[in-house]
Amino acid sequence: MNNTNLIVLVAVLLSFVSAVGMVWVNYDTLFKPKPEIVAEFTSVEFDADDTSYSPAETHSMNQLSKELVALKEKLLEREGELDARESAISMDLEALEKQKRELDQIRSDLSARLADFESQQGQELSEAKEKEYRDTSKRWVEMGPEVASMEIQNWRQKRRFEEALTIFEMLKSEDKAPIIAFMLNSDEDALIELADALAMRDRGLLPSLDLDEAVPGLDL
C-alpha cells in the first residue's frame, strides 16, 4: 500500500514538473503579445498565387495599376511641357519688354528729329518769306506809288492784306509817304480807305505827310 502511494506521488510530481517546464518553454508564445505585421507590397501588381483575391479581382487590380502608372507618366510629361512653356513665355516676355524699350527709344528719337526738322523747316520758310517780302517792298519803291498802290489793293482783294501790311511796314517812312499820298488823292474810295488802313500801322505817318513834297506836281 505504501509503495502504491509513493508511485502516485512521484507521478503527480513528474506531471507538475512537466507542466511547469512546458509553460516555461512556451512563455513567449503564451504571454507576450504578438507583433503587428505591417503589410508591405513590393509591387503594385497582384499575383493570384500570393493573394486570396479571385482571378477577376486580380486582373482588375493589375489593370488599374497599369492605368495609374500610365497616368503618372502622362502627368510627368505634362509637367515637363508646362515647365518648358513657362520658360518660353518668360523669354518671350523679356524679349517683348526689350522690344518695347527699343520702340520707345526709336519713337523718342523720331519725335526729337521731327521737332528739329520742323523747327529748321519753319526757320527756312520764315527766312524765305522775309526775303520775298523785302524784294516786294523794294520793287514797290522802284515801280512808284501808283503801281505799288494798285498791287497793294490787288493783294487786299485776294485776302492777303495782312501780308501787304507786313511788306508796307518794311518800307522807310520816306517810301511810305508817296504811296499814302497817291491813295488819298485818288478818286477811288477803295484806295482812300486803303490809305487809312495802311496809315493805322504808323499813326505818326498821316500828320507828317506833306502831299506836295510826297507827290510832286499834285495841286491840293
In words, what does this structure look like?
The protein has a domain at 144-214. The chain contains eight helices and no strands. The chain has helices at residues 2-25, 27-31, 55-143, 145-157, 161-170, 173-184, 189-199, 211-214. The longest helix is centred in the middle third of the chain and has 89 residues, at 55-143. It starts with a helix and ends in a 6-residue tail after the last helix. Residues 207-220 have low confidence and may be disordered.
Keywords:
single chain; 220 residues; mainly alpha; 8 helices; 0% strand; rod-shaped
> Percentage of helical residues?
over 70%
Distance between the termini: 199 Å
**Which parts are unreliable, with pLDDT below 50 for 5 consecutive residues or more?**
207-220
Which percent range describes the beta-strand content? under 5%
Give the class from helix and strand content and strand pairing: mainly alpha
Number of helices: 8
Number of strands: 0
Inertia-based shape? rod-shaped
| Radius of gyration from the alpha-carbon trace, in angstroms | 62 Å
Average pLDDT, all residues: 75
Series of secondary-structure elements, N-terminal to C-terminal:
HHHHHHHH
Largest sheet: none
